[in-house]
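Onboarding guide, step 5: your first structure request.
Type a short instruction followed by the sequence, for example:

Predict the 3D structure of this protein.
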Amino acid sequence: MGNVTFELADHIATLTIDRERALNALNRELLADLGAAIELARAERVRCIVVTGAGTRAFVAGADVGQMATMTRREAAAFSELGNRVFRTLERLPIPSIAAVNGYALGGGCELAMSCDIRLASTRAVFAQPEVGLGITPGFGGTQRLARLVGAGIAKELLFSGRRIDAARAREIGLVNDVVEPEALMDAALGLAREIAAQAPIAVRATKEALTLGQHVDLDTALGVEVAQFASCFETNDQRGAMAAFVEKRTPAPFEDN
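The system replies with structure tokens like these:
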């Protein structure tokens, strides 16, 4: 994975987009490396993933325009399908993910951040879907996820104009969860990741599954999903141990993921 570094500590995988010389722009090779890193996180059964960009200037400054400039329609479709497949895999993982946005999150970078469950931004972060200025549409989910996160009206404003917004505006519209100073970004992201990792992993995964499935069905069906996920947590060592500790008014043992 020459374009993505993978670090594992305390049940947390940190995936760093590491193509700093190109402002971490996404090309085919980087997307393939990111897909491999995501699968490694799944295989290692980590409890939380943090995604960030190398350097101080960019989270991901977009897709690699140099690579896209000469693509045919067929090649463009394959590139879009690759990006969507990788981002959708991240989004659908049972493992919670946090984007630590440390600079430009433009085009594919904004789309990658939106594929994560939670987004934290530094005060230097800049967000945009500027594709219309290049004669194209977003290709990695921007036309779909942005409206789901911030509402159709604001999404149309940003998508049709290509306008850039700062971190404060991103928080105001609900695109990011919190904004911190640049030097505090990774501490904030890893601190939240540790809080998540300290919870019962089976319960966290089940909660994410209920959220993910429930967003796209009617309420009655979604409540049925919740019933199933709620029940799936019972008869596990984690559930029994934690509830016994609660009843006995003692500190529970660390969760074992079984």
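Each response can be followed by summary notes, for example: The mean pLDDT is 96.
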